[in-house]
Every structure is written in structure tokens, then in C-alpha cells.
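G., the chain you wanted modeled:
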Amino acid sequence: MDTYEEAVGWIHARLRLGIKPGLQRMNHLLKELGNPHESIKSVHIGGTNGKGSTVTYLRHILQEAGYSVGTFTSPYFERFNERISVNGNHLSDQDLISLVSLIKPIAEGMKESEWGEPSEFEIITAMSMVYFAETAKPDLVLFEVGLGGRLDSTNVINPLVSVITSIGMDHMQFLGDSIEEISFEKAGIIKPGVPVISGVIQPEAINVIMETAKEKGSHVFQAEKDFHTERASILHNGESFQYESSGRSSSYEIAMMGAHQVKNAAIALKTAELLRSQHEITYTDAELKAGLKNAYWPGRLELVSEKPAVILDGAHNPEGIQALVTTIKERFPTENVTILFSALKDKELKHMIELLEEAASIISFTSFSFPRVAEAEELFALSDHPCKEKTGDWQHYIEEKLESMGDDEVLFITGSLYFLSEVKPVLLQKLENSRKNK
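Predicted structure as C-alpha cells:
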């Protein structure tokens, strides 16, 4: 491997192997690599929605308190390297090439084994563990679960804290078609004696998590039971809220929009509190406040332009769409709202579109270049909105929309994060060109 393109190409070529749940391959691969994960102090963060935002809040809190923090997240938004980062600084191209060169012969040598070759995600997970253990050596690593939990390749770690942010109906072809079945898979990250922080709200999901934790001898800290939040006010570009835990109450601000982000921030606060009780970290309240306020996560109700008003949001399942719709109704009740939507075929498309229609003055459907993507015509046919549109050229659509938008209009671009990762650089360039031409 001599170039970044070759290294990333080899990784992506492993998508042909599909998703391969199970930990046998991962354990064998890591054994061949010297079990790097065993020397890493970590927090494991799973759930249907809110994982990435919770990772971001916690990372900024820990950084503000003076710690170096590794993060393993997915999918990437702008560049592959960002999946493996330390203090927000992405893995370098040279380190990526070196990691692929190390892992490639081991992975390909597993072809004839009883488990077969590791999948793309298993390769990336192993890369992160080698990098954090042997190269970057951060104080703490935040591992985001890829899919589910119980059989996810990140589930080889033994973390200081396990976090389950939420439970929703997503990836049902892998995780089951009921809240209880999905909760069982998510609760699979709970380890013996390791405390659990849960932001889950459904009683049936809470029961599954509590039962699993009881079997493992793990204590659960449940949102709105062991720690509480109350939204105080909607800020111009963020939220303020009260947080209460262990008999103490404080006020905080975040720069990400939506009531759901308040809940994610509270989970991060409770995780920091628990790490401090384990004598792993120390911090001041001022550091908590600054960390939360500085936290930024691209593609999550991200205001990329105020005039014209354009917001990106990677709402790619019904729960994410519902959170987006709630926020639109709260913040933009009188504006003309255009929603541009694209998603993958394996999602609950009809339900997601019905939710979006509640908040849209105009709803437009498009497609992009990606495996399993839904075509614009397919999405258009699922909509009953009186002002619906479809376009095969989202770049031209956005350009025309930016030129015609008035002060009372807002454009939301939403759906698959893979779609948003294509849109954002093009959108920023079009906005820049539009400003230059005025």
C-alpha cells in the first residue's frame, strides 16, 4: 500500500463481504494483532439515535478538562479518516496506509479459516484499536457501536462505562422487528460489573436493559430516574437546560438544536460524572459548561447558512425524522419549509415520508450514487403531499433553490448521512459562489 486511495480502496472493497455479525473473526484478528484493545481505557456507546452526538459532547467535556480523547465513529461525514480521531484530529493518511499494510495480510490470510475474512467494519474497528493502543495512546477512547451491540465488532472491549442512548425501529432486518428484540441486541454491550447509563424511554426497552444488567451484575443509571433534565429555553442556535443528578442541579447551554440534543448532553454529563466517581477523571463545572457549549457534530441540525436559511440533518430513521419534525415545528412555525430528502431502500420510507410531510410546505425527493439507495421516483410515489417534487439532479435543484429563496423560506436537506456527505461540500461551494455573484 503506497497511497491513501489504495488503502481506502482496499477497505471499501471488503463491502462485498457484507455485514457479518459475530465476534469470532474479530477476536481472531485482534489476537493476531496482539490484542491491542486490552490496553485501552474506553467508554462504549450504543443506541439507535444519539450515539454520535453523545460521543461529541463527552469528547469536548473531557478535552476541556485536559484529557486526550480518541473517538471511533461511523459513518464518516466528509472524509474516511474522521472515523478514527484523537481530540477531533483525524487519522493521518500515512497512519492509515501503515495500518492497512499491517492488517491486510492477516485479513486475507483468514480467507480459508472457519470464520472467513473480516468485513469492512471489522477491519476499520481493528485499525482503530491498533492506532489507539500503539500510536496515539489517548487517555480514553469513546467507541461508537456500528450496528446493534451484542454481535457488533466493537463489543470485544471491556469498557469503564456502557451507554445506551435510545432504542428505535431501525436495522430491523438484522436486529429484530420488535422493541424487545432490538433492545436485547443493544443491551448486548452490557458487561459483567460495568455500570450502564441509559437514555431509553420505552418501558419494554427499559425492562430488557434492567434484566440484562441484573444478570451481569451491572448497575443501571436510568434517565429521568437517576438523573433529570428540563429544557429551559430555545436559543438562537442551540438550547439551554437544567440538569440534576446526585442531589445537585446546574444549568448548561449547547450549540446544537433540538430537545433530543438536551437528552444526549445529559447522558454525556452522567457519563463524565460516573468516570469521575471511578477516579478516572477530574473536572470543574466550568469545564463541563465549556465542553458542552463547544461541542459540534456535522450533519445534525447543522445550520450551514442563515441567509438563505439552509440546514442539514442526518435523520435516517423514524425516530430521527420525528426529532427533526418536532424541531422544525418549534423553530420555524411560520416559515415556508422546503425539505429535500433521499434515503436508502432498507429504511421505513413510507413512515418517514409521512412524518416529514407534517412539517413541509414543499417536499422534494432525489437520489444519489450509493448501493441500496432509493430512487427519486420510488420516494415520490410514497408521498401524498399536495406540493411534492422529484429531481434526478440534486445539485441543480439546490442551486436553483438558493437563487429563488426569500427571507421567509428555509431549506432542510435530510435523510441518509451518506447523502449529506455528498451534499455538504457542493452546497458550501454553491453558497460561496452565490455570495460572490451578489
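The radius of gyration is 22 Å.

Shout if anything looks off.
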